[in-house]
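Bug #77: duplicate submission created two jobs. Keeping one. Sequence:
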Amino acid sequence: MPSLGELIAPRRMGRDFRWLLASSWTSNVGDGVALAAAPLLIASMTSSPLLVASGAVLQFLPWLLFGLHAGAIADRFDRRRLVMFANAARAVVLAALCVFLVTGTANIWIVLAVAFLYGTAEVFVDTAGSTLLPMLVRPADLGVGNARLQAGYLVANQFAGPPIGAFLFAAGAAWPFLVEVLCVSFAVLLISRMAKTPVPPRETGAHPPVHTDIAEGLRWLWQNPPVRMLVLIILLFNVTWAAPWGVLVLYATEHLQMGAVGYGMLTTASAAGGILATLSFGWLERHVSFATLMRVALSLEVLMHLAFALTTAGWVALIIMVVFGTYAFVWGTISTTVRQRLVPAELQGRVASVNMVGVFGGMIIGQALGGVIAQIWGLTAPWWFAFAGAAITLAVVWKPISQIVNARPVAEDRPVPDDV
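Kept job's structure:
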């Protein structure tokens, strides 16, 4: 019977994958702690809804400002070192916040500035980090690798981290951020144990202006129909998904009468569904085609919006959220795997950054639409909008999904990992 370590990180995927996985999981623990602590800190300093909302916006905004540049930079330099440097920058920013909190000099403007600087560093961490896995494992192992990385995000960032962060904040405002400093610093140490990752081909030549690299990535994406369609699907479904999610707290507390605790349970239920998907993903990958899984996941997305629009019971909402967490994990893992298989190594950073800009751009557009729709037509109206929009999108992309999955990979010459 294989050991737990072999089940989590198979030996065939190599030592470097294990260091990457350990670093990602450790960093996600810290991020999960901050996920609860950061809003609590802002809310303790101001009662202004605008300033409270600004904390989240200032972490998303860097993706729109610097996302494409981060992709171009990731395609120029050693991506492992870029992740290390950006994570070290995050640790420094958080350490400075801890000093302000301990000395009693912190205020809302300092905290918002920290949110922006932290979010900026995170853009470079996530962009460069997303390119490492295809450089370490065989294309056939990308699905398993992405599933393990996603599992760490679900368990550490979404499930375990937030309650730990809330508990630490109750003990003292600086404690959760000190813990995050330690987690992020340890993540730097872990990823430093990896062998030096192969650098993109252009590393050895002269660098053109960054905007030239960005244009090259956008041009390649536009001329590659399968990847272009995949990015477009993600953008559109994020618009429809974010519309009701922006007012989910009001929907849960006012429409479903679940209270604050019940609202928190919705997030926990989603993470629980993701964990279930983690346990079953290997079997699904072996027995069900990616095209079928993608269609099922997007169909369930449409049905989820309809179910939330119709239900008035909190317990039903919790069941829906478990299902959502399950198929969302499967969709995220497969879409990332398919994209990584189709994009050449020297363009991984730029294409990944366009994808992430689409994700966060879609979220901002969707949340803005959802707020307006809910204000005019009520708290269930965003769910009806999401249902109609997702259904129309699914009908349009149903056939192209097969073309995306069956597209021929651009490059098959991936490094073969060294076994332990």
